[in-house]
């Protein structure tokens, strides 16, 4: 054997050796819990606001695994929250307005229902009514999102173990004059209409609903306070009592409404609040070591950009590149790609560019170890 051949043999051996030893790492780790955080209407410019308007480093800097998703619905290039919520919850794209049903209006199993059937506990938290399109996609099946009175009937009949948000009026100020709150106990729910207790005070074998507000929750700039991060921590402390696992969806619902209103102050307030929710989820996941956290949006709203500051209308002066302000291109949703941030076991699966429905497929594959 010549020196050259020995050298080639060594190269081949080292190369093969590396390939073999790398193999175990390519098997994705199986998450024991999933926290899915949806900023409604949160495009990349909304994600960027914390880098300029926050008083501490953006929580998004804690993510290493980042991808992009395309949000178009089955029938429309620009989605609404019902179609995209359903796509992420069920893995099937549908028409705008649909909650948990496909384009033929047939019911689709959502990830909360799937995981509940595997013994996991499940919860939904929002700052809209709890029957609004995004949270509803994780427990209800109706042809149109506006059927909120029917959606809350389905919530009380669902496998959901914890919910918190606005929309108490959908339970007790109904067009059919029934008071669902007085029947909630028969469905296994303890409902609190006054506020949120401290984490660690809820019994493991009970289901809970928190409805402190008749309509949607107030805006951050109008005094909502820490409702969303506190409800998130309460949900985690309750659901994590189940050793089989838990799935929690938390929505920053009003980022979207700020985008529709083209209101920069409203939007920044909602984003900084949602960052606190993300931080709480990441802190739990870091300690737990077994929890996958996925943060994304259902679509972008407002065509938001962070542009240089312009002089006020009718005033003299120059565009000031040293300062920025939120500017909006529209009052509607847009079709721009949406970032996906993942942390914890299986997080690397969320790299790349894919459809919103794939987010469901990725979560399900990870949990099933496929
Ligand atoms: Mg929503
Ligand atoms: Zn919207």
How are the SSEs ordered, and which strands pair?
Blueprint: H1 3-26, E1 33-39, H2 44-53, E2 65-70, H3 81-90, H4 111-117, E3 121-129, H5 133-136, H6 148-157, E4 162-166, H7 169-172, E5 189-192, E6 207-210, H8 227-239, E7 246-252, H9 254-260, H10 264-288, E8 291-296, E9 300-301, E10 304-309, E11 320-328, E12 333-334, E13 338-343, E14 352-355, H11 356-368
The protein binds magnesium ion and zinc ion.
The site of zinc ion has 6 residues, from helix 9.
Kindly summarize this structure in a few lines:
The protein has 370 residues and is an alpha/beta fold.
User: What is the general shape?
Assistant: globular
Note the run of SSEs as H and E: HEHEHHEHHEHEEHEHHEEEEEEEH
Return the average pLDDT rounded to an integer.
94
Residues in helix, %: 25-40%
The CATH class label of the domain at 29-146 and 224-259 and 269-304 and 315-368 is Alpha Beta
Unreliable sequence segments: 13-23
- CATH architecture group name of the domain at 29-146 and 224-259 and 269-304 and 315-368: 3-Layer(aba) Sandwich
Bound molecules: magnesium ion, zinc ion
User: How are the strands of the largest sheet arranged?
Assistant: 5-6-4-3-7-1-8-13-2-14
Proportion of residues in β-strands: 15-25%
Query: Roughly how many Å apart are the termini?
Result: 46 Å
What is the CA-based Rg, rounded? Answer: 23 Å
Q: What structural class do helix, strand and pairing data support?
A: alpha/beta
CATH topology of the domain at 29-146 and 224-259 and 269-304 and 315-368: the name is Alkaline Phosphatase, subunit A
Number of strands: 14
- Main beta sheet: strand number and arrangement? 10 strands, mixed
Question: How many individual helices?
Answer: 11
């Amino acid at each position: 054997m010549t020196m050259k051949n020995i050298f080639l043999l060594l190269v081949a051996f080292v190369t093969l050796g590396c390939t073999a030893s790398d193999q175990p790492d390519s098997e994705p780790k199986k998450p024991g819990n999933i926290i899915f955080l949806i900023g409604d209407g949160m495009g990349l410019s909304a994600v960027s606001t914390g880098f300029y308007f926050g008083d501490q480093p953006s929580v998004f800097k804690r993510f290493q695994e980042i991808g992009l998703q395309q949000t178009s619905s089955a029938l429309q290039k620009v989605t609404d929250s019902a179609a995209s919520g359903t796509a992420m919850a069920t893995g099937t794209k549908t028409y705008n307005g649909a909650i948990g049903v496909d384009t033929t209006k047939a019911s689709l199993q959502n990830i909360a229902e799937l995981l509940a059937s595997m013994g996991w506990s499940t919860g939904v938290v929002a700052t809209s009514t709890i029957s609004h399109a995004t949270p509803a996609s994780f427990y209800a099946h109706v042809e149109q999102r506006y059927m909120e009175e029917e959606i809350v009937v389905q919530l009380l009949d669902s496998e959901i173990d914890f919910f918190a948000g606005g929309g108490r009026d959908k339970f007790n100020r109904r067009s059919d004059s029934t008071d669902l709150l007085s029947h909630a106990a028969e469905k296994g729910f303890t409902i609190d209409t006054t506020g949120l207790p401290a984490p660690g005070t809820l019994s493991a074998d009970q289901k809970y609903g928190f409805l402190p507000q008749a309509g949607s929750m107030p805006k951050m700039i109008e005094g909502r306070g820490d409702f969303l991060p506190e409800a998130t921590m309460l949900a985690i402390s309750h659901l994590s009592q189940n050793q089989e696992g838990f799935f929690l969806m938390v929505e920053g619902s009003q980022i979207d409404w700020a985008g529709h209103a083209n209101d920069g102050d409203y939007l920044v307030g909602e984003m900084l609040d949602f960052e606190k929710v993300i931080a709480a989820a990441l802190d739990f996941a870091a300690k737990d070591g077994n929890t996958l956290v996925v943060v994304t949006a259902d679509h972008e709203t407002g065509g938001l950009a962070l542009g240089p500051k312009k002089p006020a209308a009718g005033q003299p002066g120059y565009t000031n590149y040293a300062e920025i302000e939120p500017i909006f291109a529209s009052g509607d949703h847009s079709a721009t790609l949406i970032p996906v941030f993942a942390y914890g076991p299986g997080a690397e699966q969320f790299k790349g560019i894919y459809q919103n429905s794939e987010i469901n497929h990725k979560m399900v594959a990870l949990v099933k170890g496929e």
